[in-house]
Design a protein that fits this description.
This protein has 145 residues and is of the alpha/beta class. The chain has 4 helices and 9 strands. Strands 3-5-4-8-9 form a 5-stranded mixed β-sheet, covered by helices on one side. A two-stranded antiparallel ribbon has the order 1-2. A two-stranded antiparallel ribbon has the order 6-7.
Length: 145
């Protein structure tokens, strides 16, 4: 994904539920990774095969999940410096999230438009930016976890 806010390419994982249908609209979950790492643990930490099974069994509604990279340098690894999605000396990371990632997901995937179907979820150290962005942009996110 090209980030206009950061003027460089950034990684973004997008999970689509089983039997994804472009003609249907889905809730969207934005998954923010922890402070000591990047988005690469997303498929393991979220247990995507279990998630597929829960959706197929009807225990959870089908949802789109977007997991962006919040590292400052785009470097993968446990020692990567994390932006915490804050605009500052290291870059415009809040703008990257709200002006690049969110519109990209909504433009390219069939997402529901109601804020009640927009979830912002922070894993470990991603909880702080999830709460901060969730409060600041409460008109857009219906749930923060």
């Amino acid at each position: 994904l090209w980030s206009s806010a950061l003027c460089k390419k950034r990684d973004l994982y997008v999970y689509l539920p089983p039997c994804y249908d472009k003609t249907k609209r889905y809730p969207v979950i934005f998954w923010l990774h922890g402070a000591f790492g990047d988005e690469t643990p997303f498929p393991v930490n979220v247990h995507l095969t279990d998630l597929d099974r829960q959706i197929q069994a009807g225990c959870m509604p089908p949802a789109i999940i977007a997991a962006p990279d919040a590292t400052i340098d785009g470097e993968n690894g446990i020692l990567a410096r994390n932006s915490l999605y804050v605009n500052g000396c290291s870059g415009r990371f809040e703008d990257y999230f709200m002006q690049d990632i969110v519109p990209f997901v909504f433009k390219n995937f069939s997402c529901q438009s109601e804020p009640t179907s927009h979830v912002l979820s922070g894993y470990s150290g991603g909880g702080l930016p999830a709460m901060g962005l969730g409060i600041k942009h409460r008109h857009f996110f219906g749930l923060v976890t």
